[in-house]
Fold this sequence. Notes:
Layout: H1 21-35, H2 38-57, H3 68-130, H4 134-152
Helix pairs in contact: 1-3
Amino acid sequence: MTDRLDQPRDLRLRLRPHYDPETFGRLSERIARFLGTARFLVYMTGFIAVWVTWNVLTPLKFDPYPFIFLTLMLSLQASYAAPLILLAQNRQADRDRVQNEQDRLAADRNQAEIEYLTREIAGLRVAVGEVATRDYLRAELQRLGDQLGSSDRR
């Protein structure tokens, strides 16, 4: 809610920070999309290779062999990646649900239009069936001509 100048300010202390859920959701989708790329795998592989090489070959080891700190860093990255991916999946599911509803409504409209056009075409066929067609007139004229020709011969 925006602050209004004609209202006194709320002086309550907020313990939770305010964030825009939509902005956070878009950010989480961007991160989740990046985590699912080959580029991310290459970057992580390079980072781990540099980390291990540094701590094995240089005298300035900040994380010796069992690489406990590296394990902690990877666990921390995974603990943030999983909820971000789930949030992105939930947002995608919401978008899919809205799209499916719109598709269903469009299909219902299309079905109603098809039924209307089918009724119209059936009505036109009935109307055309009552009108003499060119082939029917030719056949009748041919029949009458044949009858006249046969009556003249008698």
